[in-house]
Amino acid sequence: xxxxxSMVRTLKRPSLLVRAARFGLDDYRRDRALRRIxxxxxxxxxxxxxxxxxxxxxxxxxxxxxxxxxxxxxxxIALLTAIMGEARLLQAAYRPQLVT
Length: 100
Prior knowledge:
This protein is mainly α.
């Protein structure tokens, strides 16, 4: 089974969507974004949030591929930005800390 970081790295999405999501990464605010996207007041842990975001993104990507009328590129970009932001937080949490 793939770990979360591997799952994120293996996502293959159109480069235009990925580039747009990267533009929003500097302004990513976990509390605001997750409450809006996941429709919850209680913020889940980074790993749990990442799994939920990946599931939502897979659904919206299916809608993109099927040319569904309710597909929203803006929502897809917001999801990809949140996935990138949460993956960055997860990596930082497990990065070895330098002791000085």
